[in-house]
Structures are given as C-alpha cells and as structure tokens.
Specification:
With 263 residues, the protein is mostly helical. It has helices at 11-38, 50-63, 75-82, 86-99, 117-140, 144-157, 165-182, 186-207, 215-231, 235-261; strands at residues 72-73, 102-104, 110-112. A hairpin with a 5-residue loop joins β2 and β3. It starts with 10 loop residues before the first helix and ends with a helix.
C-alpha cells in the first residue's frame, strides 16, 4: 500500500499513458507543421475537379521545395488544412505517385520522395539511358527553329543578371522535353516524361545550392554546347555533349547532397 492508502500504479499502465500523451502532442505539432507548409490561404477549392486542383496545389509546393523531400503527407491533415474531403486528397496523392515524386510507404501512407544518394543515382541511370537513346532519333527529325530558339534562351543564361531561378529550371525542362518530343517515339516520350518529373525535382534541389551559385551559368554553357552540336548536324557530338552534361548534372546533385549532410 502507498502512503495515500492506494495500490501502486502498474508501471505498464503508466508507460501507456505517457506514450499516449506524447503521441497526442506529436499529432498536434505535425498538424501545425503541415498547416505552415500548405499555407491554407493560397488554396481556394472549387466544386469541380477537386482532385486535380489539390494535385496542382501540392505539386507546385513540392517542386518549389516548400514541402521538403522526405516529408510525410497525411491525408487527413491535408484535407483539413485545405478545406476538402479526404477523397480528392487521395486522388491527388495517387497522381503524384504516378508522376514519381510521391511514394507509398509500407504502412500505406504517403511521403515525398527522399532525395538520397541511391535514389538520385537510380534516377540518373534511367534518364541517361533514355535520353541518349532519344538523341539519334531526334537528330533525324530536327526542328531547327525550336533548337535555335532554345539556344538563344540559354545564351542569355550564360551571362545572368537577375535571371529568376524558376526561368532557368523551366528552360532546362523545356530543353530536355524537346529532345524527347522530337524523337517521335511515343513510348520513349512517355518514359522520359515520368523520369524528367523526378529529375526536375532533383535539378531544383541542385540549383538551390547556395555554396555553388555558378551552377546555373555552368549548366547554360553545357546546354549551349549541346545545342550547337545539334545545329551542326553532328549526331555523335550531340550524344557526347548530352552524355557529358548528364554526368556533370549527376555530380552536381551529389555535391549538393553532400553539402547538406555535412552542414
């Protein structure tokens, strides 16, 4: 008997109570964290195509790194903060899963892909194989006007003044999508569309390296060299320039990853 005339509390019950209190506190803090990332005021749900609207909203925040790689995405929390039911949130998350930027956990939950070394390496292995296969097909169907327009855009990026990061990243995606589209191979185009969604996120991750502000200028020089080879009609030189660019892009991504891990 204790001094208060009661039986001592079972230590197991005590631990269960403590765990429940800590879990409740975690849920409250996590909901607040998701709320701060989603910024409810930027989303106004409409009646039609809610799933598509939620998808576009989440996709933009993921690509802008406002929702960081590796972040867990709770269906209930997102639905509550965005003022919608859970069904369109699930639809949106499955669209992002199909796009390759969100993955399903073993427990059935969702998480933004974690840009670790192994994942980045896997993505670039696939991207390199597909883009190098596309280049000879593209050279046989070259649209010179499109390539010339891309070259003019990237020449301007070689000497940046106040070029927004978004412009460089969108131009990067445009260039690589153009290579895919000009191949005129539907299966290759579909495969590259999926992998470029992932590598676009990796590119944003690499461009955000504040310790290497010249990355954009280096990328511009590589792109101009690639486009020059394409305009010269030299398929072998174009394949070589593309291969070197992808190798360098992979190295920059790993350098960015290492700088974060060492910080």
């Amino acid at each position: 008997m204790s001094e208060f005339g009661q039986k001592p509390i079972d230590i197991r019950i005590f631990y269960i109570i403590i765990c429940r209190i800590l879990y409740t506190e975690f849920r409250i803090r996590y909901a607040a964290f998701i709320c701060s990332m989603l910024n409810q005021s930027t989303f106004t749900p409409l009646r039609e195509n809610l799933g598509q609207q939620v998808y576009q909203h989440l996709r933009e925040k993921i690509y802008r790194m406002e929702i960081a790689p590796g972040t867990r995405l709770g269906v209930s929390e997102i639905a509550e903060q965005m003022g919608v039911s859970r069904s369109p949130v699930r639809d949106a998350l499955m669209m992002l899963v199909n796009e390759g930027v969100v993955q399903v956990n073993s427990t059935g939950g969702y998480r933004v892909i974690d840009l670790n070394r192994s994942y980045i390496e896997d993505a670039f292995v696939v991207r390199r194989a597909l883009e190098l296969a596309a280049m000879p097909l593209t050279m046989a169907r070259l649209d010179r006007k499109r390539i010339e327009a891309l070259r003019a855009k990237w020449l301007a990026f070689e000497h940046p003044a106040d070029v927004p990061l978004e412009d460089e990243i969108e131009a990067d995606q445009e260039l690589h999508k153009t290579i895919a589209q000009m191949s005129d191979n539907p299966l290759l185009i579909d495969a590259l569309d999926r992998i470029t969604s992932i590598t676009w996120l990796i590119s944003r991750f690499s461009y955000s390296n504040e310790e290497k502000p010249h990355y954009g200028q280096v990328t511009a020089q590589e792109h101009v060299g690639l486009l020059d080879a394409m305009l010269a009609g030299d398929a072998l030189a174009a394949v070589s320039a593309l291969d070197q660019h992808l190798t360098n892009a992979f190295a920059r991504s790993l350098e960015r990853l290492d700088s974060l891990q060492n910080s």
